[in-house]
Write a structure and sequence with these properties.
Blueprint: E1 2-7, H1 16-26, E2 33-38, E3 41-44, H2 48-53, E4 61-67, H3 71-85
Antiparallel strand pairs: 1-4, 2-3, 2-4
Length: 86
Amino acid sequence: MKEFEFVVTDPVGIHARPAGNLVREIKKYVDSKITLTKGEKTVDALRLMAVMGLGVKQGDTVTFRIEGGDEEAVAADLEAYLKENL
């Protein structure tokens, strides 16, 4: 299991379009189970409505947990994606 935190810098947070793009990016990692946590709530990062339901806003810290597959590579790729897009 690999875990990392990310502080959202996008001024509108993770609303519909960024959430859809994030889910699309996560679908690339078919050998990994990825969850997203904000506060006490954890959701499957492949579920668009669940990701949007977290209500992530600018400045919020979220935690990604990757299990299975090449966890280190997936975490590095996902973190790079987040820095460029959120």
